[in-house]
Specification:
The chain has helices at about 20-35, 50-65, 65-70, 125, 130-155, 165-170, 255-260, 310-315, 330-340, 345-350, and strands at about 15, 35-40, 85, 105-110, 115, 115-120, 180-185, 190, 200-205, 210-215, 220-225, 230, 250, 270, 285, 290-295. The protein is α+β, with helices and mostly antiparallel strands and about 350 residues long. Helix 1 packs across helix 5 (about 130-155).
């Protein structure tokens, strides 16, 4: 993979989805076919600046708590509900082919909430905010479902096959458990790195789609473009500089890409340290703490990843051999095993 070209910037579209119509569906589809990413204008979605900022406050409070407290809620591999809890510095290896040290970040994963309650143990610093965490998770779910409906509209899925609800129906939590995760992330301050110092290794996301919330003046996200160059993704794309909060960044995950035969692009991305002289560097040559929040939306675990009944997808699949149909949980368990070094049998037992 080539090094970052600091002069390139991706012009990822910013789309207003306040109106759910065919035109919006086509615009979203075009963006994710080309980039795998799209910005969603953060207005009229319930995810206002006050709500998002409150989540970042909760995140700072938790990650500032003693390690001994966080350690009690460490993510375990062989449990009924895997991929929940705290991950320590260097525990996660998103790019095992090139990294044997692990990512220099902490995280905490929340599974889905039920009736406003977490379905996992929470440390005291998070338990105190359970209602806010649940509310934020539900707002993210509502947005993710709306996006799936718009993608289905853009793909012109046959109404007889499910139409606009084709994806959404497979993410209906009343039908069973899923791998959906709300994640808060913390990248501690470090000595000023080179532009290619890695804070989160190169990877694609595991689920259907991801919602990413970032803070102004905290850059670092890069995506791998078709020429295999790393290109930075701005926090505030052109036209949003005066918005009360950065637009929500949406990216396609592996499952949605698989469903559409690769038509919707699951793009490899990473987080790097900012180069000298840009926002994010403290006095004395130290890069400031970086925080982000991600909502990883997954289908119900037993969902079979069959081809989408769309003419555009069928055209793309012509001449390609159809592999074994896997379920959402099989795919997720395989990815978790690679990321955390777990045996696939252990993950499957806990999944």
């Amino acid at each position: 993979m080539a090094a970052t070209n600091g002069h390139d910037i991706l012009h990822i579209p910013v789309i207003d989805i306040s109106k759910s119509n065919e035109q919006v569906g086509y615009e979203l589809l075009d963006a994710v076919i080309q980039y795998g990413f799209v910005f969603i204008k953060n207005s009229g979605l319930g995810l206002d600046a006050e709500t998002v900022n409150r989540m970042f406050d909760i995140s700072r409070e938790f990650f500032g708590s003693p390690r001994e407290e966080k350690q009690k809620y460490r993510m375990e591999k062989n449990v009924v509900l895997p991929n929940r809890g705290w991950t320590a510095m260097h525990e996660e290896v998103l790019d095992p082919e090139t990294d044997d040290r692990g990512d220099p970040k902490e995280g905490f994963n929340f599974g889905e909430f039920a009736n406003g309650k977490a379905q996992q143990p929470l440390p005291p610093t998070l338990q105190a905010h359970e209602a806010q965490l649940s509310h934020f998770s539900e707002l993210c779910r509502g947005l993710a479902m709306k996006l799936l409906e718009l993608f289905a509209i853009g793909l012109k899925i046959d109404p007889a096959e499910g139409g606009a609800s084709w994806f959404a129906s497979r993410h209906d939590k009343s039908k069973g458990l899923s791998g959906t995760i709300l994640r808060i992330l913390y990248y501690p301050s470090t000595p000023s790195p080179s532009p290619t110092s890695i804070r989160a290794g190169a990877h694609s996301d595991y689920g259907s789609l991801t919602l990413l919330f970032r803070l102004p003046s905290q850059p670092g996200l890069e995506i791998l473009d078709p020429s295999h160059n790393w290109v930075p993704v701005p926090v505030l794309p052109p036209g949003t500089e005066d918005d009360p909060f950065p637009p929500i960044l949406v990216n396609i995950g592996d499952l949605l890409s698989y469903w559409t035969g690769g038509l919707l692009k699951s793009t490899v991305h990473r987080v790097v340290g900012p180069s000298t002289g840009v926002d994010g560097e403290e006095e004395g040559g130290w890069v400031k703490d970086r925080y982000s929040i991600a909502y990883f939306f997954h289908p119900c675990r037993d969902t079979e990843l069959v081809s989408v009944p769309s003419e555009r997808v069928r055209e793309r699949a012509k001449g390609r051999e159809q592999g074994r149909v896997v379920t959402a949980i099989e795919h997720l368990n395989g990815r978790l095993a690679a990321t955390y070094g777990w045996g696939t049998e252990e993950v499957a037992a806990g999944g």
